[in-house]
Amino acid sequence: MTQLIPMISQEEIKTKVRETGRKISQDYKDKNLVLAGILKGSFIFLSDLTREITIDHEIDLIGVSSYSGTSSTGKITFTKKPDLDLGGKDVLLVEDIVDTGSTLLAIKDYLKSLNPASIKICSLIDKHERRKTDIAVDYACFLLDKGFIVGYGLDYNERYRNLPAIFDLKL
Ligand code: 5GP
Ligand code: MG
Ligand code: MG
User: What whole-number distance in Å separates Cα of residue 57 and Cα of residue 50?
Assistant: First the structure.
């Protein structure tokens, strides 16, 4: 039987996202910030984070597919490339969760060819135990050792994205 075990509450998420938005606003106050959300998992985090950022910024979306079920396939394909001109911009990639890091490594490699001034990473969750790459998460709201979580944008086979809080999925 599938079980959803509460892990991070709506209140905890709100507090952390606010804190992260403030930090980003401070760090990027003299820069040309572009938030680049990675579809689809980041869509709820991105929409909350952008409203907690108090400096002027642009938003773009990047689509990749890399995951099916609960384990990474290691390959990515772009379903949507960024449509802003990122040349000279300070790109902050917004992810739902960084696990092995291979998705972000591939995205970062591609973005470098667009000549942005900088590329950093902001992730709602930093799941560091299975990291296989030297990807550094510059802004992380929460750290997680292991497990598979859903809710607040994160899915299991496209379900549970709508849950307002984060749950541990036990199959
Ligand atoms: P990576 O390439 O870092 O191994 O995988 C990153 C992507 O896999 C994440 O952006 C997310 O879409 C998916 N993923 C990794 N761990 C989890 C998890 O615990 N829950 C969910 N729902 N997706 C995950
Ligand atoms: Mg993702
Ligand atoms: Mg997914």
Answer: 8
